[in-house]
Amino acid sequence: MADATETKPEWVLKGELFLNCSCELFCPCVVSLGAHPPTEGHCHAWMAIAVDEGHYDGEDIGGLNIGLLVDIPGRMGEGNWKVAAYVDERASDAAYDGLLKIFSGAAGGTTGLFTMLVSEIIGAERAPVEIERDGRRRAITVGRKIQGEIEMIDGASPEHPVMITNSQYWMGPDIIAAQGTRSKLRAHGRVWDFGGKSAEICPIDWKGPGR
Known about the structure:
Strands 1, 2, 3, 4, 5, 6, 7, 8, 9, 10, 11, 12, 13 and 14 form a 14-stranded mixed β-sheet that branches. Helix content is 9%, strand content 46%. It has helices spanning 29-32, 93-104, 114-117, and strands spanning 11-21, 43-56, 59-60, 65-72, 81-88, 118-127, 129-134, 137-142, 146-152, 163-164, 175-180, 184-187, 190-193, 198-207. The two termini are 18 Å apart. Strand 8 and strand 9 (146-152) form a beta hairpin.
C-alpha cells in the first residue's frame, strides 16, 4: 500500500487545450462544472493539448503535443470516463511517462481529479500528433485516428470571439466557444463525427502539488 506521505514530482504545464465533443450546443459542463448532463446524454470527445512550456520532475515537456479520446457515459462529474492517450512521438521516455502520469491524474495537482473520473485507460501510445493554431482555427491530426478541426464563434466585437470568463471550470477560467468544422475520430471501436458540434478552446496553466 502506498504511503500517503509519499512525495509526488513537481510539474508545470502551460499551453492550450481545445476540444470538440458530441454536444449540439455549447457544452453545459463548463458552467455547471460537470453536474449537468451533456446535450446528448453522453459525451464523446477528442481533446488536443499543445504544451508551450513545462516540465515534469525536471524533464522538459515544452513543445510537445497530446491527443485524447474521451468517452463519458453521462454527467462529466459522475466519472466512469474511458480515455485513450496519444503522446507526441518526439517525447523522451521520461517526458512520455510524465505526461501519462499527468493525464491519468497520478501526478496529482490540477489533473489529480482524473483518478476519480477516469475508470479505464483504453489505450496509450506514442504517435505523430500534429496541432495547428492559426487565428480562429485549431486543428489536430493523429494519423487516421483523429482528424479534427474547429473554429471560434464570432462575437459582437470582431476582435473578440464568444467566450466565458472567470469560470471555475477545471481546465481554466476562460473558455472560448467554438464549433467543429471537419472533425472525425476513428479509434478503439469508436467512429465519431463532430462536424457542426460544440467545441471549446482554453488557455491552461496547470501544476502539480510538488509533493
